[in-house]
Design brief:
Layout lengths: L2 E6 L3 H16 L6 E7 L3 H11 L3 E3 L2 H5 L6 E4 L6 H10 L3 E5 L6 H14 L3 E4 L6 H11 L6 E9 L16 H4 L3 H17 L2 E9 L4 E3 L7 E3 L5 E8 L4 E7 L8 E8 L2 E6 L5 E6 L10 E4 L21 H18 L7 H20 L3 E2 L2
Parallel strand pairs: 1-2, 1-4, 2-3, 4-5, 5-6, 7-12
Antiparallel strand pairs: 7-13, 8-11, 8-17, 9-10, 11-12, 13-14, 14-15, 15-16
Helix pairs in contact: 1-9, 4-5, 5-10, 8-10
The structure holds alpha-L-sorbopyranose (SOE).
Length: 374
């Protein structure tokens, strides 16, 4: 039987998730089919347009009624962070499986409540960190798990954007702690924290510095009234992993020219890997196991069928993939996990752990000390 989905959210992430459900139906016939039942937004007209464009059967402005409908199996929360907790708790109580955008919540306390709710209800839960399912990143994890890098010493990650640099940009929800929880830290830092945990294991301690470069912004587009920005524009972190590795993580909305650059390098005693989202089909790999004469970072083009993760579903060998495929892969794995009842990663447990690192980073910045991750 098809899995009947309700999507809460009509904006950027709503669009990405909608496309993922459509793609799974089209390209992954081994997954349970999805029925795209209802899309929910705040604004009636925008939601109707999104319904039509994204391919949903119905549009609604009442998320609570939708979540409680008996003909919905899975609730996808793609809204700003301040709604995640209430929506997830309601969906769990109604017995629905849940997909939730990152970061899981705006506070560690809310993230824990969400985890408790899904565990109590016995429903399945996925936290959408799409970058785990870039094939090159999945391959990176395989190489590390196989011991090809040996003991890991360094995780060095940067997530850079520049959209917030104009002081004339008004106070959108992403600049408000009440709606977004934090700024670059939770929006971008959460991704590289998640990648760090996925690839190198748990983070036990952090030192950090958050900075808000533009402290007041127009209250509305073109307004002369300025209101306080209550989140960070940039966050830099030092981290220590449980396995002894050291991490440096930088997340900023103030890297002029960088639109969405998400990169990491990992160094181990037997090899290194390096990834850059702007060249997402490639994983760079260096191995001391190669003959000395040919040692060097080389490019692995991660789109070979039968070899690379997810390649079988798409095109001929070497026909490259993009940003949107990462959401499709994540939703595909979740649907397969629902079918097989296997655990999916990242789930709300990962969400709580990621949130604990975000929380520790904020406390470390405020106290100017190293802080243990709770
Ligand atoms: C905006 O900064 C944003 O869309 C994030 O919210 C996403 O999580 C990130 O992957 C791309 O940038």
């Amino acid at each position: 039987m098809a899995i009947r989905v309700a999507l809460l959210g009509t904006k950027f992430m709503g669009k990405a998730h909608s496309q993922a459900y459509r793609n799974v139906n089209m390209y992954f016939p081994d997954a349970p089919q999805v029925e795209m039942k209802v899309i929910v937004g705040r604004n009636r007209r925008e939601t109707k347009t999104a319904r039509q464009l994204f391919g949903w059967q119905e549009a609604s402005t009442d998320w609570r009624a939708t979540v409680n409908r008996p003909d919905i199996d899975l609730v996808d929360i793609s809204t700003p962070g301040d709604l995640h907790c209430e929506m997830a708790i309601e969906a769990a109580r109604a017995g629905k499986h849940i997909v939730c955008e990152k970061p899981l919540a705006n506070t560690l306390a809310d993230a824990k409540k969400m985890l408790a709710a899904v565990e109590k209800a016995g429903v399945r839960h996925l936290l959408m960190h799409n970058y785990r399912r870039v094939p090159a990143v999945t391959l990176a994890r395989q190489l590390i798990t196989e011991g090809r890098l040996g003991r890991i010493y360094h995780f060095r990650a940067r997530y850079l954007q520049d959209w917030a640099m104009s002081p004339d940009l008004h106070l959108v929800w992403r600049f408000s702690a009440a709606s977004a929880g934090s700024g670059a830290l939770g929006d971008l830092g959460a991704h590289i924290i998640d990648l760090g945990r996925y690839l190198c294991g748990e983070i036990t301690e952090v030192a950090a510095r958050l900075e808000t470069f533009i402290k007041r912004r127009p209250a509305a587009p073109g307004s002369r009234q300025r209101q306080r920005v209550t989140v960070d524009d940039a966050a830099v972190m030092l981290a220590r992993f449980r396995n002894g590795a050291l991490g440096t993580l930088e997340a900023t909305r103030f890297a002029r020219g960088r639109k969405n650059q998400n990169t990491f390098e990992i160094n181990g005693d037997k090899g290194s890997i390096s990834f850059d989202l702007e060249h997402l089909n490639i994983l760079k790999f260096y191995s001391v196991e190669e003959p000395a004469a040919v040692q060097g970072f080389h490019d692995i083009l991660c789109v070979t069928k039968g070899v690379h993760p997810y390649a079988d579903a798409w095109w001929f060998d070497g026909h490259i993939l993009g940003y949107e495929h990462t959401f499709t892969h994540t939703i595909y794995d979740f649907l397969k996990a629902l079918q097989s009842r296997k655990r999916i990663h990242p789930d709300f447990t990962d969400g709580v752990r990621n949130q604990a690192v975000l929380d520790a980073a904020a406390r470390a910045s405020a106290s100017r000390r190293w802080v243990a991750v709770q």
